């Protein structure tokens, strides 16, 4: 018995050794090619950032897989975590795509929440402009965001012709584009000045810009404190919940599509887009008519048009102004009123 | 990343097996340590705006030529000639360069009010192109505008009514070319210059010539003194054509030459591994190679041939120049070398080559044994400047199945050449003396050439003459994997494996020979110092 047992173990070991030996003896094409000693190895080429080739993510297999994930997984999860009130969809009914969706940006969940709340005719044919230095700095991240969000890398720190060409080419190919003209998440919830990317692309491609305001997303996933580049100490709100996903209602507001006027340069058009988003921000807390009236009533010389950017004040005051304490007349009084839409009485 | 030049690899222990073409398939061979493998330069960047570049070339000619619009006038007789199916290889994806150039020329001719325009495929003694092939080369727009009215023709080297004898050069060479072309107010010739041998005076002096004219340079003596065909100053073939071309010009034939060069982006991305260096193959390349090689081994040759001949190359234009023939060709040749040239130090005892499924004379056809010999010894052996890659008395090892198969419609005289001539002798000079005349004047072959899609009766002789320089230079030719009977019929030695071939070669070059492999595709030319 012992002998036979030993033979059995030896047999298994022998087979294993033979298998290892065979595996080692495999040659091209079954094994990876060896590198000739006389040929210098180049530094491994990292095709990340702007160099990342994301074309695969728009091929049909990837689109089909993404659509299945988005409709069957992401949308139910989004509805669970961030039940959305969507307004302004009527603006999209009579406009010919492709469109450029220009939204404010307060949280990493802005993109998936915006995509999952887009009408179906846009949802699966939209690419997202994402910061190349943040979302495309590793191969795995590049692949993840390209697949899950159809993201394309955009240079946000300086003007980059390649970024612009890529985005413009895709729009001209019929893809809708989601872009966050602020260039990054707001550090404190107040809107940052818009950069000219969306306006430039609209002028270049002749496609309309749809202003979008996302409200409440920073409560779902706030910017983490160590990322906060505001006054020392950051904002108290974000330091408590930074980086953790929380359940909170959100609002998604679509404005009327904008096209550049004759002779209007990108800078002026960008200001108009920003004003349209600001108008939507006001609408969250009231309704369209109230918001419209408040804009008309505001004196452009007193800085009211920039009210969505918050007061020129230290961080805590900006946070305070952003999330005012509930008053006795607003809402039911439960939950402190944070992030709730208030309606005119 | 900038384009990498060609280079010579010295095989060591870490070098992966090397890719060899093997007809309608490929194989990996382990070469002995110390062997050299010559890799081609990477493809050059294509012209961003080819139509713009063509127009610019036509408006800004080189040499003693006016811009094309200045040469066009109402009431003139304009003939546009173009290279036939033998170029480029493989046939390129639409739009073909000929289409792009000819459309631009025709636009200018239309603007100038030229009514009498004729297009001629300059096919010398090659087979006539089919309608599909012409449509692919010229585009539907051109084809439909000219072919139905009989204004798109193919040169007929056996049509006495449409040939004109212009005279003889100082070397006694007859010049008999297409009459319509020679008597036109302007002859525009549209070239695709795949290799340095193409174009120049050879375009008209060969492409539009008759057998009476061609025999002066398509003979064993001329070929043996063309070292190589790719190096015009050292090529007697070119010297003869240049004499003829200058004579034609002096006879008053006004030629506006248009030459174009291509990059070496030869195969579509599904065959990317063919043009990559083996140690840079990624998983996809390995999988594609394994799957393709295995499936090709498992299908009948006829099916594999069909698959390969359906491939259209993504070749792209890298330059276009127009004007006077010699000035144009000087620029073209420089551009071709820029793309294809590789510096190589010293000759080798053994040169190895993997031969593909295609050569200039079997597009959409079968690579018969005579064409195998011509491709290996006539073309690949001659891809050098300076000295041949292999030393005198050295050995050439080819890899190709070399099946004794012929296309009866395209190559009828090849069959008889194989059965009646090669069974008697393989010496090009003897073949030339004993057999050429009877094949060249055989009425049946002439009939097939003129009315069907057959190569001229003399064409297999020319293919054999192309080998003359190599046959004279080499100590032995070995074909690995070829049909033994067919290989022996060619006068070569068959071998079943590369190791066998090296063993056979050692009889000629000794036990420790040097070995060099020319790694194709893509095509390249060795500047041997």
Tell me about this structure:
The complex is a heterodimer of chains A (345) and B (529). Chain A is an alpha/beta fold and 345 residues long. Chain A is 42% helix and 10% strand. Chain A has helices at 2-25, 60-81, 90-93, 110-116, 120-123, 132-135, 139-149, 161-172, 197-205, 217-220, 236-241, 266-284, 288-297, 315-322, and strands at residues 84-87, 100-103, 126-131, 151-154, 176-179, 209-215, 250-254. Chain A has a seven-stranded mixed β-sheet with strand order 1-7-6-2-5-3-4, with helices on both faces. In chain A, helix 8 (161-172) packs across helix 9 (197-205) and helix 9 crosses helix 12 (266-284). Chain A is elongated, with a radius of gyration of 26 Å. In chain B, helix 3 (97-111) packs parallel to helix 4 (131-146). Chain B has 529 residues and is α/β, with parallel strands linked by helices. In chain B, helix 19 links the parallel strand 17 (476-480) and strand 18 (493-495). Helices cover 37% and strands 20% of the residues of chain B. Chain B has 20 helices and 20 strands. In chain B, the strands form five sheets. Chain B has a seven-stranded mixed β-sheet with strand order 1-4-19-14-16-17-18, with helices on both faces. In chain B, strands 7-6-5-10-11-12 form a six-stranded mixed β-sheet. In chain B, strands 13-20-15 form a three-stranded parallel β-sheet. At the A-B interface, loops of A face helix 10 of B.
